[in-house]
Specification:
The protein is built from 28 helices and 23 strands. By secondary structure, the chain is an alpha/beta fold. Among the domains are: 139 residues, no CATH class; 164 residues, 3-Layer(aba) Sandwich (Rossmann fold); 151 residues, Nucleotide-binding domain of ferredoxin-NADP reductase (FNR) module (Rossmann fold, 3-Layer(aba) Sandwich). Strands 3, 4, 5, 6, 7, 8 and 9 form a 7-stranded mixed sheet that branches. Strands 16-13-18-11-12-17 form a 6-stranded antiparallel sheet, covered by helices on one side. The longest helix is centred in the C-terminal third of the chain and has 19 residues.
Length: 817
């Protein structure tokens, strides 16, 4: 579609001049078929002036970009309030290469000498003016006057506008600080009188929970000499760690996330501590005494990489380690037990090396005060809405996370429904939130709520059922008032605390059970909890018998029919972890459906919190009974999700992305719902094929149990194979097919070794793996064995090839568990 300027007399002349092949004019107009620009005189004047002023072509490039953007806006049609496809008129443009083509084209045309720019501009000025030129001048003048008088003559700021954004809660005693919080951790320790700081780097909340529990338990066990504070690494400037005196102790609890990466809140500290030796010559940590514990998963190749690198850097800079580094392995779900064992060693070290004296019996000292206040109105309360997860102190969170929004679920269908499992395809509408934009391969987070039954159970066992909606205030006590960030918003209600803010369905750990014993209503309940908490075998038997033992169920089991009135609400708020969002790979393409995002959700049993929440929502949309006997408040806090077809959600950026060139070959490996991002990848490749773009060869290895049970998206995959005209091969592996041996994706990769090696090594294919971490590890091992066999490589050569592939993003993984 061409853009008309209102000067018909210019068009034949310009067309004729282009046909004559003037090279300089082609430089100005770029390309006849691609960029037929008809501008008014005053726009040409702007271009000419810019070209003449700019000696380097910088300003002229801006003018070119302005005209190009206007032209492209006429060529690209975006869907409004619909899920229609993006269409691009010019065949040389595509949603995938538009930015690259535009940049390459303009750069090649305008990076000429300034003299040539001036000549082109003068030629543009030679064109005849028309009525449209005068209209354009009038519009430009009005726009300039409007802009210059903004805030002076019109739309002057309202001096009381800030009152519109004051939260009513702040008028009712919520803790606020009139002074800016220091980012100097040494100063923070001195001001608060704390002797120990427990730094945490956490992605899922586990390390954070351990840090707060440890900071609370240390003074409870050893008194004021072990007064401690938990510290988010992103809240403090990393260089101030060097200022911590040798009379204090620093404890680092660091999780390793993904492929050996630090958690989002650790990046600034990570960049500082891992600087090159030349950049750290002036840094000395000789005063720092520290202990460290890492959280990782041995299913991943870079098991506990973060704590290993950090402790090596600390030692290199002169810090003194007081005990061996502890490590948790979540491969078999042993993180909590590993932490408990390390904590016992830590306490022993404090006694033997630092001379701490342990109390005969540890007791709970509250760090929070929880008070009822019936004078508050409902409008003043936090009713359970998720807080924005973006941390202004953390550059990673601002770049990688969108705000939390309320999204409408437009459809939810079951992909399969076996006797013990469900699988859902859920589509969410982004139309009402233009600031939410995702890219193919990103993640979508769902904020669930706890089920009605568990909320009612805990309220009942604590004797709070009748007080569930009474407003409460929460504030820090004593030293905690200066060092403790409130774990949940305040003021709120007990109902909101248990339904939306705390993980009341999470398993109760052994150390938590030991602490609960002091609040037992009877001697028998006290003895029961001590027996379970003190003996690992007794705890293991309880877990195997009950499958999952959460707080409400444990209290009922320990003392049936009794009310735990001595158990303070402050203790639960301090010790139970915050309810966290659950992340899912987006299974739709941002090119095919930019304002609709879909996720694929496996519901394995009745214990998955977010998956059962989404299953209940899907059943509600179809007016079916709730599964597993679980019910939820689907209308959300304050009916924010009414009529029960909405969820709180946000987007998270991912590195799991398709290569820029559509002709690049791909090898994709998935098991179960790991197919989700590849559904999006293939939809994008199908769109490329449909508009006549070249598409590279692709192999998809997909594994599930049985072809007639859980082969999700089967019909779609078959249709994609047809649409891609032989460029996609789907290789399946079924682990429980009747009458057939068990086969897994890594086995099938070995069977197709010749094709895989040809694509990966000879043709430079990108490799993508999505599913459980154990599967990804086996796939990497299988490919390595094939390379050794086919190429004759050594183990060292295979390791170097794998590292290089991951470093160059030629091998990417999106794994969990």
């Amino acid at each position: 579609m061409r853009v008309s300027s209102g000067v018909p007399s210019d068009q034949p002349m310009l067309k004729q001049q282009r046909r004559e092949g003037s090279k300089s004019r082609q430089k100005l107009l770029l390309d006849e078929e691609m960029f037929p620009v008809y501008t008014t005189y005053y726009i040409r004047l702007t271009l000419a002036t810019s070209c003449a002023i700019s000696g380097t072509g910088v300003i002229s490039r801006y003018s070119y970009y302005t005209i190009v953007e206007y032209e492209l806006s006429q060529r690209i049609s975006y869907p409004v309030n619909s899920n229609k496809n993006i269409s691009i008129a010019s065949p040389i443009f595509s949603p995938f290469t538009l930015g690259a083509n535009l940049k390459q084209l303009i750069t090649s045309r305008i990076m000429e000498s300034s003299t040539l720019h001036v000549l082109h501009a003068l030629h543009a000025l030679a064109q005849a003016s028309s009525i449209a030129d005068y209209v354009a001048l009038t519009i430009i003048a009005l726009a300039a006057a409007t802009s210059l008088t903004h805030g002076i003559v019109w739309d002057r700021p309202d001096p009381y506008r800030h009152l519109m954004f004051e939260r009513p809660q702040l008028k009712h005693g919520v803790q606020t600080s009139s002074r800016k919080e220091t980012r100097n951790i040494a100063q923070k320790l001195a001001d608060s009188g704390r002797k120990i700081v427990v730094f945490w780097g956490s992605q899922s909340g586990t390390a954070e929970g351990f840090a707060h529990r440890l900071a609370r338990e240390l003074p409870s066990r050893f008194g004021d000499e072990a007064s401690a504070m938990a510290a988010d690494l992103s809240d403090y400037d990393p260089e101030t760690i060097a200022l911590i005196p040798n009379t204090a102790l620093a404890i680092f609890l660091l999780s390793t996330y993904g492929e050996g990466d630090p958690s989002d809140n650790t990046w600034d500290f990570w960049d500082w501590i891992t600087k090159d030796k030349d950049d750290t010559k002036g840094i000395s940590l000789s005063n720092l005494r520290y202990c460290a514990f890492g959280l990782g998963n041995s299913n991943y190749k870079h098991y506990n990489r973060v704590v290993d690198i950090v402790t090596a850097a600390l030692d290199r800079l002169g810090a003194q380690s007081l005990m061996p580094v502890g490590k948790a392995d979540d491969a078999e779900g042993g993180t909590r037990e590993d932490f408990l064992a390390w904590k016992d060693e830590l306490f022993q070290m404090l006694v033997e090396k630092l001379g701490f004296e342990a109390k005969a019996q540890a007791s709970y000292t509250p760090a929070l005060l929880v008070q009822e206040d019936e004078s508050l109105q409902q409008v003043d309360l936090h009713r359970g809405e998720p807080e924005d997860i973006i941390n202004s102190n953390n550059r990673q969170s601002a770049a990688n996370y969108s705000p939390v929004k309320c999204l409408t679920v437009t459809s939810a269908r079951q992909l399969f429904n076996s006797s013990d499992r469900h699988c859902l395809h859920i589509e969410l509408d982004l139309t009402d939130h233009p600031q939410l934009t995702y890219k193919t391969g990103d993640h979508l987070a769902i904020w669930p709520s706890n089920p009605d039954g568990e909320v009612d159970r805990l309220l009942d066992v604590l004797g709070l059922s009748q007080r569930r909606n009474v407003p409460i205030h929460i504030k820090s006590l004593g030293r905690a008032a200066t060092t403790t960030r409130l774990p949940i918003p305040t003021p709120t209600t007990v109902e909101a605390v248990f339904r939306y803010y705390l993980e009341i369905c999470a398993p109760v750990s052994r150390d938590h059970i030991l602490e609960l014993a002091q609040f037992a209503p009877t001697a028998q309940a006290n003895a029961y909890l001590l027996q379970i908490g003190q003996h690992k075998q007794a705890y293991a038997e309880l877990i195997s018998r009950t499958r999952v033992i959460n707080l409400g169920r444990l209290l009922q089991l320990a003392c049936p029919g009794e009310t735990w009135s001595a158990l303070p609400l402050s203790y639960l708020i301090e010790t139970l972890p915050r309810l966290q969002p659950r992340y899912y790979s987006i299974s739709s393409s941002s090119v095919v459906s930019p304002r609709q995002a879909s996720i694929t959700v496996l519901v394995p049993d009745a214990h998955g919190l977010a998956s059962n929440y989404l299953l209940a929502l899907a059943q509600h949309l179809e007016s079916k009974p709730y599964p597993h006997g679980l019910t939820y408040q689907l209308n959300g806090p304050g009916d924010a999700l009414q009529p029960g077809n909405k969820v709180f959600a946000h987007l998270r950026r991912s590195k799991f992305k398709l290569p820029a060139r559509g002709s690049s070959p791909l090898v994709m490996v998935a098991a179960g719902t790991g197919l989700a991002p590849f559904r999006a990848f293939l939809a994008e490749r199908c769109r490329l094929k449909a508009i006549g773009r070249p598409v590279g060869e692709m192999m998809l290895f997909f594994g599930c149990r049985r072809p007639d049970e859980d082969y999700i998206y089967r019909e779609e995959l078959e249709a994609m194979q047809t649409a891609l005209d032989g460029q996609l091969r789907v290789v399946t592996a079924f682990s429980r097919e009747t009458g057939q041996p068990r086969r897994y994706v890594q086995d099938r990769i070995v069977e197709y070794a010749e094709d895989v090696i040809r694509l990966v090594e000879d043709e430079g294919a990108n490799v993508y793996v999505c599913g459980r971490a154990g599967m990804a590890r086996e796939v990497e091992r299988a490919v390595g064995e094939m390379l050794k066999k086919v190429k004759g490589w050594s183990d060292a050569e295979v390791d170097e090839w794998t590292r290089a592939a991951k470093r160059r993003l030629k091998w990417q993984e999106d794994v969990w568990g």
